[in-house]
Amino acid sequence: MKYTAFAHFTMIERKFLLVCHKTEKDITQSNHNLTKGDLFMKMKNKNSLKTIITSTLIAAMMVSNAPALLAADSKPPIGAQEIGSIQPRFSGYRVADIENWSPETDPYAKSLRASIPLQNRNEAFAATQANPELESKAQVMLMQGDYGNAFFDNYTYNNTFSEHVLNFWQYTDYFSPWHGAASASTPKSLYDYETSDWTNRGFEFGIMNIPNPAYTNAAHKNGAMSIACIYFDQINRPEQTINEIFKQDENGEFIIAKKLIEMAKYFGFDGYFFNAEEDTDDATKEAFLKALNDEGIWTQYYDTIGQASHPNKLSKLDCQDSVFVNYNWPGRRVELDKEYFAENPDFDPYSKVFYGAEANKGQINGDHESEREIPQLYKEGTKNPIASVALFTPSDWYQRGLGEEGNWERIPGTGAMEGKNGVVFKSEGSMPTMQQNEYQWMIAERERLYFSGPYSDPTRTGMVEEFPREDVGLKGVGSWVGVADFISERSVINGGNFYTNFNNGHGMQYFINGEAGSSSEWSNINIQDILPTWQWWIDTEGSKLTVDFDYGSQHKMKNVDGSDRAADYTQVGAYNGGSSLVMYGNLDSKNNVHLYKTDLMVSAGSSASVTFKKTSNDDAQMKLGLIFKDAPETVVELPIENSDKQGDWTTSKVNLAQYAGKSIAAMTLIFDGKANDYQMNVGQITINDGQSHAPATPKDFKIEALHDNGETQLSWTMEDYSTVRQYNIYAVLSNGERVFLNGIYDDNVYVKSLLGEKDTIRFELCAVGIDGTESKPAVINYDFSRQVSNLKVEEAKTSTGLLTQSAHEGVLKASWTAPEDKDFDSYYVTVELRDIKEEAAENQVYSTVVDKYTPRAEVSVPTLEGYQYTLSVATVKNGKTSNAMSYSGATKDVYSIPVSKEDFTFENNTISFVNPQSYDWYKLNLYLDGEKVYDYTRGGAYSKLLDLIHLKADEGIIEIEADYRAWLHKTEAVIIENYSIQSEVSVTLTDYSGNESEPVVIKASNDITLSEPDQPLSELLAENSALLSALPSNIKTAQDAAEVTELTLDSRSLTSLAGLEHFYSLETLDVSKCPNLKSITTDDISAKIKELNLTNCSQLQVLDLNGVGLEKITYSNVNQYSNLAYVDLSNNKLDLSEGTPESTFVNTVRDFVNNNSDKTIEISLVAETTVEAEEETQGIAQETTMPTAERKTYRPGTMISNNQRPEAYAGTIANETIEKEVAKGQTLNMRDFADQTVKTVRDNDFLALEGSAWLAQDYNPSEENPFNNVVVQITDANRYTTANTIDLSINNTYTVQYLKPEYNTLELLATKTVKVGDGKAETPTPPVEEIDKGDNDNNGGTTPPIIPPIDGGDSNTGNTTTETGSWKQNETGWWYENSDGSYPVNEWQLIEDKWYHFDNNGYMQTGWIHIPSGWYYLEPDGSMVTGWKLVNGKWYYMNELGTMQTGWVKVNNIWYYLNTNGDIATGWVMSNDTWYYTNESGAMQTGWVEVNHKWYYLDEKGTMLANTTTPDGFEVDANGAWIQ
């Protein structure tokens, strides 16, 4: 089995790449074109048998498939045919998507349900078959594309004609669509049709997509089952594996199987075909399939065995409905099967065995043996197969392959097709040949040749001497027998009623009663009628008429050479729908055109009606031919009145009462007479039992959404299919024209266009009964004059450029044009998120009310993920809302879901990943000790995501192995250096929006796994026996040392700690009993030491503990460290705030270090020769010598202690309210909150409280502590998100939420309410004067020249103290170097009384910056702005701390309102459900103001009065306007 464009690799070849179990004979046969040199060239540097065989096979594939087709992808429609913003479309599902699937979170799920139930087929009646000798036992599984081969935007209907609509359901028992789809979150922008490589289209496919529900409806309508395909391919889709689907819950039930059952039942399809091109455990697989089978889900699982009676094949039938016999069945294998079937008469091969026919490779000229040798399946002397048949992707050549064989060749590098005469069929930028309207006639005829045989006649099937059909691009036909050769036609036409409009599911127009009811082209197989059973079976003794579908004069055609092709008949079009049936040509003898195989019962009231249009002027007559079941050899000919007259559409009724009690087994049309250029179009045939079957008017008809561009979603209550076969949706436009919008059998429908109507429109919904009669319409009237228009939301591209979302975090900013009719009070604006769990906190209606004079709104939608939304604006009058106008888009995504514990395993220093649970991950980033060293991009064909990652400390590397695909894709192992045993390995996920998740540690620095854990410690410390003697006696092996967390050393002879680097887990070190210790350095310490006891270490010269994580230093007398000449305590977690022991230590030893700047530092690795090493347990003195090793050198007089980052650890999280009364701008220390939330406090003063201060992210998770991977989200009193920061300089109330990430949602764990302020509400004072911004505008908004900072000034490593430093510059930018050589990174620094901020790399920043405490603006010279600032024509206000303000601010005793993005508001302002008005300078107004020629009164607080009398005696209405 293959997947679309993999058609040029047969499955037995592909599968063997993974499971090498072919026999030597098989290999020899499949490689007969290879030379010995070819084989060994593929074996370079490989010597295993498996490698030899695999290399041989891939070479065979390259040779044997050289002429194979690469069928074209479907190009996404463009222009007006491009998919709409809310148009339903289906996508692919990953295993993780299936596991987490629910209808409410699956985009468009409600509109993707197939509602037509599977119809019962009539019992076989051989007498009316095209070939009466066929037994009708064999079945057909048709595995091919639906409308085409689109990977994105797989719609169910569209305004395009050039979609493939299957015409041969009568030969199909199982329909399994075959083309794959991108996973739902994959941005379409990743796919470039023009340059796509078929082996790597550049995006991720799902492992399953539902069958197109429109095709499922059509299949069910014709009695065929619809089967989804589940596809795994480790060669070209390597990021997902079949083994992922076998996950079981605590009860041993298959989680994915249960979801697959739920999905099949919800979407209305019938089963699954498993195409797993990789090996797996048979027992597990069979148990999984049985779980599906037990719930009535039809299953078939592909394997490579080409023999149905093979024991391994037969055993599969215990757990699945049927088996697929691989394409290599011809020859001895099928003969063995025949013997088995004969010996086992109780075995039913027709329901259990499907022989594969490789149609795409075989085409119609016998290019593949599985097609060419189909007669080998026939029982002797018949055309009856011994089992059923699976036809693999015939549409890949008759539709998608159009232009790729015969007269056409690809133009290299463009994918275009060029004819032999130079005509280019697909030029760059245009649609492929198969998607051009002018070539659809050619596709239809090629399809007919495949199903009806080489003469497009089901009575003339079988192999014939090859002859050309160059008119449809085929050099020869005749080596394919035609499906009708071995499968008898099926029918579902039964009961007492039947109708058809010969509408085959697409059209260049939609006709209503013979008139164009829509001028737009369309495709919608949902409303395809039951099509003629035979194409075309015509009995005559003379010339045969030609039969075809007539789409009308708008249908233009082209020939192979690109020239225009004129129709051979007068194009009339349809009566109802897109097509009618046309019979034309020279009529020189009676023609009997067989149309339908039926089982219709005739009653006393039964009648037939035929609607026709005769365009030729002659007296030839058309008759209705009926074949009754009791006399199948006789055709009863019934005259059709007026059929001999030229004219317009005419309906003639034929009374059938005389045949009451009989059963109609077939219907034909008979053309009798003589005429040249005869033409008759038949637009409708009905059989009616004399009863009225008009349905009732549909109920609950309503508009779900109507967008400004005309896109509309409608819904109603659906009636049972036994009474209603279809719903037709019409519109009556303002000019009185009635047009067709869409049709479906469902409870909702999408309408793409309202034909530009902007006045009034009446929607009409009609139900269609079982005899084709329409109900009276349900009606909705919509008046555009009362609705807003030009509705839009401010949007922007994400940082990746892949998606378009709201331009603003946590808020949607919408604008619109006011309605023409101004008779309303206000606007009501709502936002609803789509595809979200019902119980999710975000699942709510976000809304705001806007006054009628403000055609814009900001709606707060505080979400982290980029959810799809619908924003609606309705006018309000007297408390009642009108129909809304809607807009759809996505909120701004600011959060990436981290890797979950289910996404990886870590055992024995080996990491393995599966496709992450995160639905929108784009890159998986691998970090080594905080530095990104590798990333995986989602969806790459050569992805190494599933390759094992080996951590090799002994080699100092991480190795991402080359897997079995390396020889195919030329991938090699990836080597990452600088790995050590105490390294930390972590991963993050970057999503399609560009957000990077919190890191997840896979291998922690204290997770130590040794290669030789039992190595004696005496061997490790052989070069420092003093250290060995200083250790406790219970530490004997390398593993013992690696696990020690607290260590006390006891040795007067110990001068060096060399060898202590093997104590990887050490956290607390006590050297107080080592008075002669001279150095403690990072050369000797590999662990993260938190606590160090230096008591009595008076001989220390060097203390080099840069970046070891030190938090606490213990000592008894700080003055004893006068020998220290080098100290580096930088980049630790020491609390150096005033008064702490660590601060005292640093400040004291700084003087000692400075005094020793001229002292020579000598660090020895051993005890000096004058010092005796005491063996205290034995009382033996000994002299020890050790070789000198290369070590770090130390410059005397060096003292460094900057970049301390103490941590705050959160205690138990609980719901609580915390109040702190602080003055504006007051600095708070975390100690101020110690009694309420934080247990351990080690931090500097804060201007803001970050989420990490409330809940540290690096504490150790455990089963007792449920708050692993907690996200802190803080919102202010207006519900505007401040991410994870509380600004302590602003009086406000904050909500702190602790959230646990679950799939696509955040589960609320606890909430704290934090009130920061002076406890007093400040009342606005009435404005008395205009603000003069000139004093505070920082040069009036002009850009000052960029002047390099002057050398010198203060540095502030702790935000409170300054040191002398200097500015430095390179090609990247400016940075500031402190006197000790360090530089500020990701922090503020006060330099010459100005604040500057430096980025993660230490460079000075300018312009707008956003940090946890808020937004700040930095001048071009880097200095922080306070007060008013004009930026890009908008005024902003920064407080005395430089933080950009929002909401109400008071400046110079005047109140201003600043929008959520900080810019000053002018005009009407809604705040806390109260209206205020600010003038053109932004100052809040009081008293009377005139706005848009109306007067309003604002009280002393600025509040607009409404529905009252003003203090000076005037009445104002509900909108605040003075009633004059």
Features:
1524 residues; mainly beta; 21 helices; disordered N terminus
Terminal Cα separation, in Å? Answer: 82 Å
Write down the Rg: 40 Å
Tally of strands: 96
Strand order, biggest sheet? 2-4-6-7-8-9-10-11
Helix content: 10-25%
Count of runs of 4 or more consecutive helical residues? 21
SSE-based structural type? mainly beta
* Largest sheet entry: 8 strands, parallel, barrel
Strand content is 25-35%
Q: What number is the mean pLDDT?
A: 82
> Can you tell me the overall shape?
flat
Q: Give unreliable regions as ranges.
A: 1-70, 405-416, 419-429, 1164-1191, 1207-1214, 1220-1247, 1251-1268, 1318-1363
Protein topology:
Blueprint: H1 11-16, H2 24-30, H3 36-41, H4 49-64, E1 89-90, H5 95-99, E2 140-144, E3 154-155, E4 174-177, E5 208-209, H6 213-221, E6 225-233, H7 255-267, E7 271-277, H8 282-293, E8 298-302, H9 311-314, E9 322-325, H10 332-343, H11 349-352, E10 353-358, H12 359-362, H13 369-372, E11 388-392, H14 395-398, E12 408-411, E13 416-419, H15 440-452, E14 467-469, E15 474-477, E16 494-495, E17 498-500, E18 506-507, E19 510-512, E20 515-518, E21 522-523, E22 537-540, E23 546-550, E24 557-558, E25 564-565, E26 580-587, E27 591-601, E28 607-614, E29 621-628, E30 636-639, E31 650-655, E32 663-672, E33 675-688, E34 699-706, E35 712-717, E36 726-733, E37 738-744, E38 748-751, E39 760-768, E40 778-783, E41 789-793, E42 795-797, E43 804-806, E44 811-817, E45 826-833, E46 845-851, E47 856-860, E48 868-877, E49 880-881, E50 885-890, E51 904-907, E52 910-913, E53 921-928, E54 931-937, E55 949-952, E56 957-960, H16 966-969, E57 974-977, E58 985-991, E59 1000-1003, H17 1017-1020, H18 1025-1030, H19 1038-1043, E60 1046-1050, E61 1068-1073, ...
Parallel strand pairs: 2-4, 2-11, 4-6, 6-7, 7-8, 8-9, 9-10, 10-11, 16-27, 60-61, 61-63, 62-64, 63-65, 64-66, 66-69, 71-79
Antiparallel strand pairs: 1-3, 5-6, 12-13, 14-15, 17-33, 18-21, 19-20, 22-27, 23-26, 24-25, 26-33, 27-32, 28-31, 28-33, 29-30, 29-32, 34-35, 35-38, 36-37, 36-39, 39-40, 41-44, 42-43, 44-47, 45-46, 45-48, 48-49, 48-50, 51-52, 52-55, 53-54, 53-58, 55-56, 56-57, 58-59, 67-68, 70-73, 72-74, 75-77, 76-78, ...
